[in-house]
Every structure is written in C-alpha cells, then in structure tokens.
Amino acid sequence: MDTRDIQALTAVKLYYGEGLTQSQVATELGVSRPTVSKLLNLGRERGYVRIEIHDPREEASETATQMRDRYQLNDVRLAQPARAGNAVLLRELGRVGAELLDELVVDGTLLGVSWGKTMYSVSTQLKSKDVSGVEIVQLKGGMSHSDKSTNDIRTIGGFCHAFHAYARTLPLPVIFDSVETKRIVEQDRFIASVLALGRTVDIAVFTVGAVDHDSLALNLGQLSTTEKDLLVERAVGDACSRFYRADGGIALPEVDARTVGISLSDLRRIPTRVLVAGGAHKAAAIDVALRTNLATHLVIDDATAERLLALDSPAAPAAPASPGSPGSPDSSTPLTATE
C-alpha cells in the first residue's frame, strides 16, 4: 500500500468515521481541500468505504401495498431513482433487485436466471453471501449472431460469485433458424439436463422487455425482417424471450417454437418468480406479465408503479394452464378474466 492509499484511508476515517468536514480533514492532513476530495474519491474507488442508503419507501409504502393488492403479489420493492435517466434507473432496479435476492437465496437454492440489461445490472450489485450448495441455472440460450451482446455469461458469473455457486449454462442461441435444428440440439444429454433443471428451480429471476425495432431481443441476428416487423406489430412484451400479446397469448407461435429456454407455462410453475423491470416504455409489458401470473415478487421503479396503478382495474389473473391448451398463455388463444 503506497502513501496515497494510506492518505485516502486516513481521509475516509476522518470524514466518514469521525464526521469531520473536508476542510477539517484538510487541516488534519496538511493538504488542500481539493486534495481531500480526491482522496475521498480514491477511497471509494478502492472500496475503503461503502455507502449504503436505506430508503424505507422501497419496502413499505402505499404504492407498494397497492401494487401487491392489485396484482396479488407476495412482495413489491420500489426503486427510487434520485434523478432521471435510463442508466440511473437500471442501476437502482439492479440494486433493489440484488437486495431482494440476498434475502431469498439460502443454502441449497436452485436459482434460475435470465439475461438482459436489467439482469446484468442486478448481477453487478449482488453482495457476497455466505451460503453453500447454491446452483445457478441459465433459463434461456444467450448466444448472439450480431454485434449486440446479451452479457449472459457475465450475468451468470456475477450470480455465481455472489452466492459461491455452480453454473449450469446454455451455450446456445435463444432462437434457432428452424424447429428441426432446435429439436436436435435439445436431444443432447447436457442441454436436455439444463433445460429440465430450469423447469424445477426454486427461484426464477427475470425481466421483461418492450418490443420495438431497437429491442435487444430483436437484434441478435436470429430473426428475419418480416418476423421483426410482425413482433413489433403484435407483441407487447417478452419474458425469457417468449413474446406475448396484450391479451397474454403468444405473439408469433412459429418463432416461439424455435425458442430455447423456459416456456411461460413452466415459468408460472416456479414457486418464487422475481420480476425486475421498470421504465415507462415497459409499463404495458409489465402489466400483462403481472396480470398473467408470471411473477410472485416484483422490483419496479415508483414512477412506473404509479403509472400501472392509474390504469383501469385489471382482469383477474389467469390460472395456469397446460402448454398449448385453449386459454393457455402459451398458446395463441387470448386470455379473458374467467380463464
């Protein structure tokens, strides 16, 4: 440790530990106030000090209670971004999502993980937890055939590092060129075992995406131009790369048939399902996901939660149905309040 690091440690202890002002710290160290500011920044970068902010609104607020009641959820956590901007929103959703997972994961947990920008944010903000026997299961393929990265491996790595876990990955594209190729690959013993394990996890953590021409899920080099246009026209969102309409039905069955990963019906059977998503552009996707029972736990920003609460009262959540059966959210049949 060099002299600069030692100075940074001393500055951190005086400023954060003893409550001195930066001017007082400067006097103690015999340096200028700007130098103290730089030393404090260095201390934060080195990890000599960690700042934790506990916002009681994240766990206990009228908005969270109303969201729990409206969508019949077990738990709702609200991210409270201090300022506007997608980067800030992603960071806060990831932080609050990481805190919730820290509470849920225990010894022996089988944890299913999806990918996406929100999931990557969660993975980077998880703190190490002293648990054993945890396994992380990738819920869908993540290889890209374009210059867009899914960050699937880095996301899985973040979860494994935090929970000292073993990874079960799917080194595959999420959407294949043909149903025939997908079926052949799924017959591989290793791939089949990971897919089967994904259907039996204790906890699934995932996000939902809005569907437009800029969506990551549409730009991995796995869809034709016609398919992209149809998905933008028909789909309101996707969960685990399963594109769904506003009524909850599958938006494009021919694409869904080529998709590798957990189905929406299998997702609903997971005991604990943590949805981490936010932003006005995802409001419709989140609303449909919640109305069709995709989540038991929700992490969302307060502004989007308020937007959802302002919508007309939702229909009763659909009861799980077998895949492809009439009324099943995995089929092309729309959902109704009685289904």
Question: What features would you describe in this structure?
Answer:
Belongs to the SorC transcriptional regulatory family. Residues 314-339 are annotated as: Disordered. This is Sugar-binding transcriptional regulator. This protein is α/β, with parallel strands linked by helices and 339 residues long. It has helices at residues 3-17, 22-29, 33-46, 62-71, 86-104, 117-125, 152-163, 179-186, 189-198, 225-234, 253-256, 264-268, 283-291, 302-309; strands spanning 75-79, 110-113, 135-138, 166-168, 203-206, 208-209, 237-239, 242-244, 272-276, 297-301. The strands form two sheets. The protein has a seven-stranded parallel β-sheet, sandwiched between helices. Strands 6-7-8 form a three-stranded antiparallel β-sheet, with helices on one face. Strand 9, helix 13 (283-291) and strand 10 form a beta-alpha-beta unit. The protein is globular, with a radius of gyration of 22 Å. Mean pLDDT is 89; it is low at 316-329 and 333-339.
Question: Which key terms come to mind for this protein?
Answer:
disordered C terminus; 7-stranded parallel β-sheet; 10 strands; 14 helices; 339 residues; 3-stranded antiparallel β-sheet; alpha/beta; single chain; globular
Percent of residues in β-strands? 5-15%
Helical content band: 40-55%
In what order do the strands lie side by side in the largest sheet?
A: 1-10-9-5-2-3-4
Count of DSSP strands: 10
Q: What is the 3D form?
A: globular
Low-confidence stretches: 316-329, 333-339
**Helical/strand content category:** alpha/beta
Q: Give the biggest beta sheet.
A: 7 strands, parallel
Query: Span between N and C termini?
Result: 65 Å
Calculate Rg over CA atoms. 22 Å
Mean pLDDT: 89
